[in-house]
Design a protein that fits this description.
coiled coil, 5-stranded antiparallel sheet, single chain, two-stranded antiparallel sheet, Arc Repressor Mutant, subunit A, 11 helices, elongated
Amino acid sequence: MSADQGLVRVSDSFGVRRTRAGSILADDGTNYQVKWDDTDEEELVPRGAGVHVATRGSLRFLALSDSRLFHAVFAQEPLAVVLHLLAESSVPLKVREIRERLAELGLRNETWARHGPRALAVLPKWPNVVRRQKGDTLAYTWVGDDLPELPSEAEPDPEPAPTPAPVSKPAPSPAKPIAAATPAEPAVPSAERLRRQMSAARSLGEVARLLTLPREFVAELSPEVVASALRRVAAEDRLVAGWLDALTASGPIGALTEELATARAANAALQNRVDELEEWWTALEQSTDPGAAIRQPGS
């Protein structure tokens, strides 16, 4: 196991997201031997929900281990973040794909809208950034060696004050002052964002959390998106794999499999009958052949 491989355990208790990061010392396929950064203690961590592996120094590790710092770094150095994203990608990325990849890492839409244009304005002419044709538009890739360093500390991005809505007549003064609400990520995501989150889910806990959202939002997910998420989880979670096998055996797919097996058996029986009829037909032809009676064995 590479020393650069880090592990981040994410827990969500009563809406409060907590993370703990450490280094992976060993991996037996079922459990990780982890040395935690905060205490230097070692622990055996089973694979499963809320356990993520990422390369230390990567954007994914930063986003998983410290979401606030990730947003603050993007607000301070958006171009550096985009360059690191291009360097970590195995394929060139269009502008839309850059935004989608950052959203998958948890970057809020309002943070991108406020600071992303600064990076895009200079990206096409930045040294070691190459533009390549991808479909009907251009994509960007990093071809250099030395990336700009990401700051290890950054000031949190201040939230903008909400713009007051115009009123036709003055509103009565409230008895108690009401604090201005700061823009925050909606508790219930849009259908498109829910689809992206489900497509990026890597644990049963993440899938379950998304499926507990209000039904009108969950109904926007296609069965294929949910099935794909469960298959990804099943690839690393034997429990989920067992559930899927049981559902497949007892559900419509299992019924179709049994029906196909029955049809194949019937087809085999029919083929045997055809072979028998061909043998009888050959024997009948030989018995009616005038020369058959005078032929001697071996002639």
